[in-house]
Amino acid sequence: MKTKEHQNGKMGKTQFLHDLADETKPVDESRRSFAKSGLAVSGVLLTLASRPVLGCVCESPSGFLSGNVSVHGTPPTCSGRTPGYWGTHPEQWPSPYKAGTCTGGVKKCNHPENWTTAGATKFKDVFNCNNHGSIYTAYTMFQVVLSGGGGDPYQLGAHIVAALLNARKGWTPVLTEAQVINMFNEWDQNGYFEPTAGVHWDGEDIVEYLQTTMY
């Protein structure tokens, strides 16, 4: 985990818009092993190494940073789902968050442009998109989940949405909805999230942490 300040947190808005418009393959639902390589490099999430179906031991951001797994009682277990899961199970989205409606037929429902924005939860209505997060302003949360790499190479938006839905479901006892929203909003404002004083997580760091709460 890096402890550096993000030098240029703004991602390529033009590239992100282009990637959202392109036809992309479905997001892979499996997990990769915890590594430093980018999550998305060609508009498609990379295959991820699978996790146990019953969940995984997880920690809060500060606990993850220190590597301090509690020895008092049973460690918390997270059973959060990946962006790939939420991208292929729109009917499972917990209220009040809504994926919207697919208008392109079953075979085209993995493409962001084939989902209506009417009735869908807009990303900007939940998260701040004033600075570094401005590339997400025009899209629904579901469209962000379906988007590829390019301007968002680590899929921060997709993982933040997945983390929010997981928290709403009660699948991540170490993260609440408010904490997930604050994590993104702090990154939007500063280009980094500070899990503890003096430690800066950029988008890649945030994604790597969130992946430890998912399987």
Name the descriptors.
mainly alpha; two-stranded antiparallel sheet; globular; 2% strand; 215 residues; disordered N terminus
Can you describe this structure in just a few lines?
This protein is an all-alpha fold. The protein has helices at residues 13-21, 61-66, 83-88, 141-146, 156-169, 177-190, 203-211, and strands at 56-57, 77-78.
Explain the overall architecture.
It is a single chain. With 215 residues, this protein is mainly alpha-helical. The chain has one domain. The protein contains 7 helices and 2 strands. It has a two-stranded antiparallel ribbon with strand order 1-2. Helix 5 packs antiparallel against helix 6 (177-190) and helix 5 packs parallel to helix 7 (203-211).
- Characterize the biggest β-sheet: 2 strands, antiparallel
From the spread of the alpha carbons, the general shape counts as: globular
> Low-confidence parts, pLDDT < 50 over ≥5 residues?
3-10, 23-53
Strand order of the largest sheet: 1-2
Strand percent estimate? under 5%
Number of separate strands: 2
Fraction in helix: 25-40%
- Taken together, the total number of domains comes to 1
What is the count of DSSP helices, taking H or I runs of 4+ residues?
7
- Gyration radius over CA: 16 Å
SSE-based structural type: mainly alpha
